[in-house]
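Review session, final week

We close the course with one last complete record, chosen because it touches almost every idea we covered. It is Cell division coordinator CpoB, a protein from Marinomonas hwangdonensis with 259 residues. Go through it on your own first, then we will talk.
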Amino acid sequence: MMLKKVKSYAIASVLLTATPLAFAESPVAGLSSNAAAELLFQLETLQQEVQSLRGQLEEQGHELKLMKQSQRDRYIDLDKRISLIMSSASKATVVSSPVVPLAEQPASVNRAAPSSSPSVLRSSPLAPVSLEAPSVESKKAYDDAYDLIRQRNFEQAEKALSLFVENFPKDTLTGNGYYWLGEVKLVQNKREEAIVAFTTVIERFPGHNKEPDSLYKLGTVNDQLADTAKAKSYLQDVIRRFPDSKAAQLAAGYLSNIK
């Protein structure tokens, strides 16, 4: 609808450029001076409206460009994380919750160490849980969900990870599942749901190896939601509690750009 108006107004603006000269050089047949002045006023008003609409279109185009860039940056960030995890999979380990120390995990579990947050989280108390070693069934469910992330099938990965954390709430891989579910939600621009997922990692799985990354993500997402105070709090917490982590380095760089 707006484009149709712009086209109509554009045609009128062309007429406007010629009309004043016509009025100035020769009288308009059948029009009094008052009628001609009124017509000129209407055309000038129409031109102003065209200019206003043009400005709105340019502003919307700029906002759309920024949104596409933000989406692309999040996708690239997730892609880099996946690549890094795949390259260091043989060395990755799953860190247990301090509530119940975890036994050393098999190689297949270590490969799956990075994980995500839940798609639609149920209202459950966010308290530390006692963890259990992964079963054959839970490992397969997690690996299948993670393979969907590697395939960039984020919508299906979200569903699979949501089912995983729901069906295996006390598994040693569940903290990883919540973290990666948060990442998948960010790629799909579901910031509020991502915050719930990252918060779950921190509150239900304290001491987990994805806790620094979850804190960093909470800082960046809150900044995107214009909650600068909360964003700074999370980023400063990463630096204070995990000064030697990669997340702390990222947090320091991000903090320097927050106004």
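Two points worth writing down before the exam:
The CA atoms of residues 184 and 208 lie 19 Å apart.
Residues 2-6, 21-28, 88-126 have pLDDT under 50 and may be disordered.
Good luck, everyone.
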